[in-house]
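Severity: low
Component: inverse-folding endpoint
Summary: output formatting inconsistent between runs
Steps to reproduce: submit the following structure tokens with default settings.
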């Protein structure tokens, strides 16, 4: 599809994903172009911009077109001298090979995430992105009605980015940093998207329990709901080339980076756009159970 401002949106899957052609992200983008990119994001959930060759300043500039930026992470250090850029460095044995939505353990998770490829392995190292809105629509009616009433506790005390025994000293240090401040936040299992009104399953790796249920029942229910998110038809596979940039809506997606590239280097840089407080189907907002409002990480929602 060609937009009114002249760039092409080429769907890559029936339920999620599109490649954007005819936009140079190194240039100053007209507000009308930004608006149409945002519309494409809301429709397709994840957008791939090939061979953009952005530098750090360019990635920050592009991400800021969609809102105020967060710092890199609530607990993990940023790129040196760039407090808003998180290095995603598989070479250090730190691999997020679990389905998750970014930073849902705080009250205001990011609105959107950008990933920029810098070093990619010759095989493997893809990023999978899943449409949690489609997952919600796939639920049988009894499960959907149950999900409307459920709230999940999301916490960083569960470290999705490290195995039970860290693979290296660097990985062990990362794990220590990751849980250096403990956060526990209650979010609705079904989140209403603030721009579109679409409903999606808001769970993923940081969701560790269901309020009012024991650990066994929580695990079973979360596993059932998660199985709808990760159905193959709901997933986009991004096969990286150096210089690519991906923009995805963190409010209605999950993502996963398969650990399938051995000891080869892989480096992406992540910049996230500040989000709002999630709301459930009855309008009730997420709330903090433990920790602070992470003001050092994300500005207050407008």
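Observed output (run 2 of 3):
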């Amino acid at each position: 599809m060609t937009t009114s401002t002249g760039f092409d949106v080429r769907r890559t899957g029936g339920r999620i994903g599109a490649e954007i052609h005819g936009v140079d992200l190194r240039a100053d983008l007209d507000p009308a172009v930004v608006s149409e990119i945002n519309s494409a994001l809301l429709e397709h959930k994840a957008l791939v911009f090939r061979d953009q060759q952005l530098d750090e300043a360019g990635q920050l500039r592009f991400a800021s077109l969609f809102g105020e930026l967060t710092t890199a992470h609530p607990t993990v250090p940023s790129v040196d001298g760039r407090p808003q850029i998180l290095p995603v460095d598989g070479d250090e044995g730190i691999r997020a090979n679990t389905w998750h939505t970014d930073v849902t353990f705080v009250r205001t998770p990011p609105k959107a995430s950008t990933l920029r490829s810098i070093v990619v392995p010759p095989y493997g190292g893809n990023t999978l992105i899943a449409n949690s809105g489609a997952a919600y629509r796939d639920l049988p009616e009894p499960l959907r009605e149950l999900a409307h009433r459920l709230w999940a506790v999301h916490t960083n005390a569960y470290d999705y980015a490290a195995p039970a025994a860290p693979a290296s000293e660097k990985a062990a240090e990362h794990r220590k940093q990751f849980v250096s401040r403990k956060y526990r936040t209650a979010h609705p299992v079904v989140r209403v998207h603030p721009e579109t009104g679409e409903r999606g399953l808001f769970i993923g790796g940081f969701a560790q329990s269901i309020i009012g249920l024991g650990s066994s029942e929580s695990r079973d229910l979360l596993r059932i709901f998660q199985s709808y998110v990760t159905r193959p038809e709901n997933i986009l596979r991004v096969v990286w080339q150096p210089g690519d940039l991906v923009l995805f809506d963190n409010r209605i997606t999950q993502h996963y980076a398969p650990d399938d590239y051995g000891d080869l280097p892989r480096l992406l840089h992540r910049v996230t756009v500040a989000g709002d407080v999630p709301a459930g189907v009855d309008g009730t907002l997420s709330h903090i159970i433990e920790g602070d409002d992470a003001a050092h990480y994300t500005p207050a929602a407008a």
